[in-house]
Amino acid sequence: MHSEKKGRAPAEVAKASDDVPSDSIESVEIETIPRVWPRIFKPTIVCGAFISCALLVGFASVTASFLPFDFLHAKARELSKTGQIPFFTLDFYQKMRLRLQVLGVASIIVAALTFIFRGRVRQFLAGLATDAVRLVAAIASEWNAIPAPDLIALALLVLLAAFLRLPLLSQPMRGDEAFTVLRYASNPLYVALSLYTEPNNHLFHTLLVHFTYVLFGYRPWALRLPAFIAGLLLVPATYAAARSLYRTEGAVLAAGMTACSSMLIEFSTNARGYTIVCLLFMMLIPLAAYMIRERGWTACFLFSILASIGLYTIPIMLYPLGGIALWLLLCAPAGDAAPNSGGTVSRLFVAGLLTATLTTVLYSPVFAVFGPGPVFSNRWVKSLRYHQFIRELPPSLASTWREWNRDLPLFLTIALVAGFGISLIWRRGCDKFRSPLPLALALWIFLLLSIQRVVPFERVWMFALPLYFVASTAGLALLAAPLLKSLRIRHGMLLLAGAASLFAAWHFRRSEWIYSTNEGRGMEATATYLKPRLAKGDSVVVSPLADAPLEFYFRQQQIPITYFNAPVLHNLFVVVSEVAEDTLSKVFAERNMDPPKLPDRPVAQFDSALVYEVPATE
């Protein structure tokens, strides 16, 4: 969060004392910041509200544990899309009862302890309110230090990001996002936030999508709004992270690369939680930089809140969060902490405890219903044998690298690689800290993967892509800025950032990669075609990779999904997706069905979806 005081910095910022670093918040006249927050924030009310909520959760959990099995089983079947809930057995019910009772008693104990120590809790909250003034002063100082041309450029880059993403908001629904909406977000919240049968349920994202679903229904553009907004906010967040880490003028260029990245554009228009994780990671970086240089607990508290939301969105937030934590630990002995900053390590320890507590509270509905197993040990995160892990990891990382550079011009890819190397080799010239964050992140990921022995999907590493842009553009700016100044080109780095962003955007617009890989292509038209033709006794069969998009459009058009894989009494319709590389025989094999006499040609084709009909007489 600390940057050189230039641009529109106020006069107060320049009045730094001689014994305090020039970029210290101690140099800010915090008396100029309106002290509205301490008057609004009432520790007694906050403490009372927390106790009331804890008691409410406690008694509600204990009460729910006494609901009879038959009642809950009937309710679950009613809420199920198919009427089938094989996991809800009597044994599952007994374990859920016990977990609910443990959760309820624990909540009541927390409420009681908070009431007993309410004096100390109020004192701590009052300290937070006072310390918040210092943090607001830091934010105001940083905002005033941003040059006006940078703000204009940043606004234009956000518009460019929206221009590149808006056409894809209404593209056909993909498999994973359709599954997320159908199985989780479209259900009542008490189901959506406690049902964790698959890691597709990115809980915080599911919460946001639920509200857009309630407001707009099965409209793809609406269901993608949370990911879309996070993708747009990622552009200024990347700029802020760059200014907090590096001294060079590469922040606008980093924001431009984020705006035009094909991978980030794809997941900004995909109803999943990955762009939210990227955004939270970028937001944590300035807070961590502040925690290194300044004392106080407000930043620590905000750090824990953002980290908990990230973990609540997807547990993979552990990768970027652990990288930042390791970076904080390395910065303290390296001498990056200012003399007046107090114990960085102690604040990090408290932040870790608070993050663990808040995350446990957020996941408590899942833990109460399913236990911790689905979160920590599902079929996608099982450990491999070491030889298998070592064999499969390099190809996965190579594929990730290709995804990062997808649709980027070759010269930009080479320039970014060179810039990244420069930022590490000559880090004293551009890095504000002796310990570089990218190396700390890489070290943490290496250690964690060595323990887990898992090979994550390529999209898991997307959170590191904006940081890669930040480091790369910082290195490029270290070389380019002096050259541009020697040529007396006014706002040279801004012009370079604009040109590179526009060229990357033009290169992306020429590509059809995102649409061409969408397995939902043609499914809306297929549903429209089948709607008047389906009758009682008919069945619709589709491969597992493409069934969620088709089911989504069935629900959108209010076609009963009982036709899916139903016993064939009349006509059989088989939907084959060319994107999923399906064939008729493959669809039947994946559904464990004996294929009838197969037709020679489809009766209809919509984009990449082919519809075959097998009449009952055959």
Overview of the molecule:
- The protein has 618 residues and is mainly alpha-helical.
- The chain has 2 domains: 146-514, no CATH class; 523-614.
- Helices cover 64% and strands 3% of the residues.
- It has 30 helices and 4 strands.
- It has helices at residues 11-14, 37-40, 43-64, 69-79, 90-116, 118-145, 148-165, 175-185, 189-192, 203-216, 220-223, 225-245, 251-260, 262-268, 274-293, 298-313, 318-334, 344-362, 364-370, 373-376, 386-404, 410-425, 427-430, 437-452, 464-486, 492-509, 513-516, 523-530, 544-556, 584-590; strands at 539-542, 572-577, 604-606, 609-614.
- A 4-stranded mixed β-sheet has the order 1-2-4-3, sandwiched between helices.
- A hairpin with a 2-residue loop joins strand 3 and strand 4 (609-614).
- It starts with 10 loop residues before the first helix and ends with a strand.
- The relative contact order is 0.10.
- The model is unreliable at 1-34 (pLDDT under 50).
> What is the distance, rounded to the nearest whole angstrom, between the alpha carbons of the first and last residues?
71 Å
Question: What structural class should be given to the helix and strand makeup?
Answer: mainly alpha
**Mean pLDDT across residues:** 86
Largest sheet: 4 strands, mixed
* Count, helices: 30
Query: Can you list the strand order of the major beta sheet?
Result: 1-2-4-3
Question: What are the segments in which pLDDT stays under 50 over at least 5 consecutive residues?
Answer: 1-34
Number of domains in the coordinates? 2
Beta-strand residue percentage: under 5%
How many beta strands in the DSSP annotation?
4
Q: Rounded to an integer, what's the Rg over CA atoms?
A: 27 Å
Describe the global form: globular
